[in-house]
Amino acid sequence: QVQLVESGGGLVQPGGSLRLSCATSRSTSSFFRVGWYRQAPGKDRELVARITGAANIDYGDVVKGRASIARGSASVDLTMHSLKPEDTAVYYCFAGTRGNVENYWGQGTQVTVSS
């Protein structure tokens, strides 16, 4: 019913930048929470950035100062810079309604930071 289509992943050198885009099949205004999460091998999924409600933005501690999230009418974009090898992970777009009645995830896109 709801599709989250991600793009922008790939191989990036340490210190480089990337932009991940998430196109949503439904207006982002219909979601209470949108954002990006990531999961590295052997690790739990962790927050990268999210927007809750109208404009409450939270960043994960490991990316604070290096990430920026923006919401469009039907998109959620994540920009990261000064990338580190430990940023290597599968990145997932997320959208959820209030109270987690509906939760949607993208298919995940691989980001590899390596020289």
Describe the structure.
Helix content is 0%, strand content 52%. The strands form two sheets. Strands 2, 4, 5, 6, 9, 10 and 11 form a seven-stranded mixed β-sheet that branches. A four-stranded antiparallel β-sheet has the order 1-3-8-7, with no helix packed on it. It has strands at residues 4-7, 10-12, 18-24, 33-39, 46-52, 56-59, 67-72, 75-80, 89-96, 103-105, 109-113. With 115 residues, the chain is an all-beta fold.
Total DSSP helices: 0
What would you call the structural class?
Answer: mainly beta
Indicate the multimeric state.
Answer: single chain
Which stretches of 5+ consecutive residues score pLDDT under 50?
none
* N-to-C SSE string, H for helix and E for strand: EEEEEEEEEEE
Major sheet description:
7 strands, mixed
The proportion of residues forming helix, as a percent range, comes to under 10%
The N- to C-terminal Cα distance equals 39 Å
Strand tally is 11
Binned strand content = over 45%
What Rg do the Cα atoms give? 13 Å
Mean pLDDT across the residues is: 97
The general outline is globular
